[in-house]
Design a protein that fits this description.
The structure is a homodimer.
Chain A lengths: L2 H21 L2 H17 L1 H18 L3 H7 L3 H16 L7 E6 L5 E8 L2 E6 L4 H12 L3 E5 L5 H17 L7 E3 L6 H6 L8 E5 L2 H10 L12 E5 L5 H13 L8 E7 H17 L3 E4 L1 H6 L4 E2 L13 E7 L2 H11 L4 E5 L3 H10 L4 E6 L16 E3 L7 E3 L5 E12 L3
Parallel strand pairs in A: 3-4, 3-6, 4-5, 7-8, 7-12, 8-11, 9-10, 9-11, 12-13
Antiparallel strand pairs in A: 1-2, 2-16, 14-15
Helix pairs in contact in A: 2-5, 2-7, 3-7, 5-6, 6-7, 10-11
Family (chains A, B): Belongs to the gamma-glutamyl phosphate reductase family.
Pathway (chains A, B): Amino-acid biosynthesis; L-proline biosynthesis; L-glutamate 5-semialdehyde from L-glutamate: step 2/2
Protein name (chains A, B): Gamma-glutamyl phosphate reductase
Chain lengths: ~425, ~425
Amino acid sequence: MNVETYMTELGQRARTASRLIARADTARKNKALAAMADAIDASREALAAANAQDMQNGRDKGLDAAMLDRLELTPGRIDGMIEGLRQVAALPDPIGGIRDMNYRPSGIQIGKMRVPLGVIGIIYESRPNVTCEAASLCLKSGNATILRGGSEAIHSNQAIAACIREGLEAAGLPQEAVQVVETTDREAVGRLIAMPEYVDVIVPRGGKGLIERISTDARVPVIKHLDGICHVYIDAEADKSKALNIAINAKTHRYGTCNTMETLLVDQAVAADILPELADHYAQLGVELRGCEQTLALLPNINAATADDWDTEYLAPILAVKVVADMATAIEHINRHGSHHTDAIITENYTKARAFLREVDSSSVMVNASTRFADGFEYGLGAEIGISTDKIHARGPVGLEGLTSEKYVVLGDGQVRA
Amino acid sequence: MNVETYMTELGQRARTASRLIARADTARKNKALAAMADAIDASREALAAANAQDMQNGRDKGLDAAMLDRLELTPGRIDGMIEGLRQVAALPDPIGGIRDMNYRPSGIQIGKMRVPLGVIGIIYESRPNVTCEAASLCLKSGNATILRGGSEAIHSNQAIAACIREGLEAAGLPQEAVQVVETTDREAVGRLIAMPEYVDVIVPRGGKGLIERISTDARVPVIKHLDGICHVYIDAEADKSKALNIAINAKTHRYGTCNTMETLLVDQAVAADILPELADHYAQLGVELRGCEQTLALLPNINAATADDWDTEYLAPILAVKVVADMATAIEHINRHGSHHTDAIITENYTKARAFLREVDSSSVMVNASTRFADGFEYGLGAEIGISTDKIHARGPVGLEGLTSEKYVVLGDGQVRA
């Protein structure tokens, strides 16, 4: 069978299954999630064997150490999948919830009911545990899913898919509610993102290159996460100890995450007081600083920043540092050079805090808190399918609600339009 | 200058203006709207002269009577534009509103702030009053706009644009916040929908053909309204008088609107009691019925429906009628043949009402009310830029809120991630 026919059939089955999943009640969805957890627990050997095959192929193909690490399904990661499924089962069911039922002068009563999106296509790279995570979030939010993992994880993903199907069947739900693409042909992705009749939205998870390619070619909406060029701005009226703590945490808590600070902006009024002390801390932690001219005047031993540094997501122990004239200049820099992800001001000034919150055009805007908090779990969403850098539909950390829509419900007693 | 350069410059100016409009306070936006109303009131002669030129060109080009009617700016329609601007000024400002500020265990406090989308491109056909309507809604919701009207209305649109610029200037807002494309070159549309760096969302208003073309070619999100194939299902436990009133109102209140019923579904248990009486009413009102086989058995004088009838938006005094075995069959028919726009059940049965609301996958689902209520004004949105048949971002009638997004705001006291 050719790939196009295969994907079309997958799409048709997903569309049919989506109608059944949409009306499944909370108890049934939770039963399926619990049964998936049990199936994974009972299949540890099969999962390990499948993963060993992927790891061997990966080593033969010369995958680098970081990729092999992401590919590995250790016993701890299998525990993590099981725990994750149980946590998703424990989350409140968003589907069917009705808000804002109000009467109108015509006598009709109108409100909004939360509903699934329909069919969600997920495209991801090496980590096989994403298969389980994404399937569970889509199921809980009443959606059918088509999952396309990396070719290097194909055996692991198929083994996880078997456990997922077992769980769906145990709860009396259609197995086609979660389908894992069985071919590694790249054409499968091209077809998946171009079937609006069967797929309602695509969530790509992976590097910026993958996501840009998918966004450009997709014929369906894409909930996308591009880069995280996050800023901390230390205002003239910052509390010094908060500023030091947050600047260090936002850069050094983890280097490879999208909510890590990549550029530090410091108000010129406090630069001389704060930067040398901060530079000592960074030096001890092995962070390379790249400064603007005014920064270099205070820290003569660091490297000079080039124009590119202001637009770079390092994902590494490197930090660009710029001294700015005032908050307006800081906001202008952030809105121009940032990636509209997460940006923070450190200040004790009420009016500046309020203006910064309003004027910075990012999915998370913070006052006196580390950018590292931008995360679905820290925000209380209970789960996270990703962080959206879009403005349309879902913005910032995306939990179950981002995988849903709303419809209007209208209750009447026979009203007609006059 | 070539069209691509012209549109790029329009986009750059809109992007710059959008940052100023986003932070404009409510009083300033309302002042601009009031000044636009005054400018239109003071420019009645210029508007009439520009419109007369478009009307003459239209007649010379042989536009049909319906198009010429839509193109005409009568004194009443000019009054309507002025009144519309004042109504939009009176609506609550959605921008900057914060909801759900809650504390998290880490001590940070998190909520969501409503923000503009940025730059909105509107593409529409002959009605020049849309220029005013769309500009006012985008301005009130803090967005910059690029408007591309039909070439047949170019003089009217430019005359309205002059009044809009006058209003913006009077309030101290940038004139580039609302730009009306000055070329009638079709390439301008192609460029407008393919500049994600300058345009955040496209709202096309017009026929299905236009909207499908734009959706296919767009490289930015599109809030689209395709067709309205709306159903009324008369359940076995319907109140007969409500059923008759709603079935007549939903079809005959207006024929050309998207929320008009196009297919009537009747439960077989009540078809013999209801259909003949209803058919008499429709006959008196000049509505042509096209029935399924069971309908024909009860109404032998009407035409037979063909397979195409179940998928047709007539926008005319024609109604497809089908007798169904039960509610499940009705829901199946609606989800398969409808356009997910607006569908209603007439029933006194609580459990069936509840199931219909949950299971019908449409932007508006109604119990015992006419589909004609699906409208931004009837729903209390205060205004309507269109009705979305999408599930992503905005669904159903789209008012000011549909032109906005939300960002997370995080307030802390120096918290760092542990």
